[in-house]
Sequence to fold (243 residues):
Amino acid sequence: MMKVVAPMAGISNSEFLNKVIPLGFDVATLGGYSLDTPTIEASRKIVERGRKEFDFPLNEIFSNIENEVASIKQVNKDVKVSANVRATTPQPIIEVGNIKELDIVEINCHCRQDEITSIGCGQEMLKRPDLEEFISQIVDNVDCEVSVKIRANIEGIDTLEVAKLIESSGVDYLHIDAMKKGVFDADYDLVKEICDAVDIKVIGNNSLNCIENIEKMIDTGVYGFSIARAVISNNLNFDISHF
Ligand SMILES: Cc1cc2nc3c(=O)[nH]c(=O)nc-3n(C[C@H](O)[C@H](O)[C@H](O)COP(=O)(O)O)c2cc1C
Fold:
């Protein structure tokens, strides 16, 4: 079972990830990072209203990610490093995907901050008529594996259909935040439906803050699971190493 530290903008840098990887994780996700002028401007606005974000200018972002990947690999040689990224076009994502030592580039189709969605990024990506083409351009032009992170149950989006489309684009992983409005638990039924319908590696996410929830997620047929909020304290109060 692949165990992933999920991305947290403004939190998940190499220093944080090096501390939490020894809790039993196989994949550490850096970011999310904004990679082009529109997304960097959106990040600035998010910082201005007091939310945590990584705020790097265009001339620093790619070398910063490269250094962060190296800082993790130096300490945790066997862990896979992923970078969760946002951009309005595939090109900057391709550039990150070709960073030396990076194992996975993760296309962020997940963020729901207005500043990001108003420029067609984050979860709004799932409404792009050219989503399959956008993703397959990245798949065809990078050396590393490709993941797409999505949010489930967005109004106006059929999550199962979008999962099938993402599979057709040739990615390696579908990372799904199985959030369901009004429920403080993952939508395990939907994750199972997706796992039954696609052959790519599904990473299940949302509210995995105890062993019981992880077991429910594993029962859906996922290839792996990811955790975000429960690792912020730098100390999971449950043991994931045996999964
Ligand atoms: C502070 C914070 C920042 C986040 N930033 C990102 C991000 O940049 N990209 C992304 O795909 N998900 C981001 N997420 C979502 C998490 O990766 C995860 O999908 C979500 O928190 C649900 O998982 P959890 O219940 O284990 O926390 C963020 C979550 C938090 C709490």
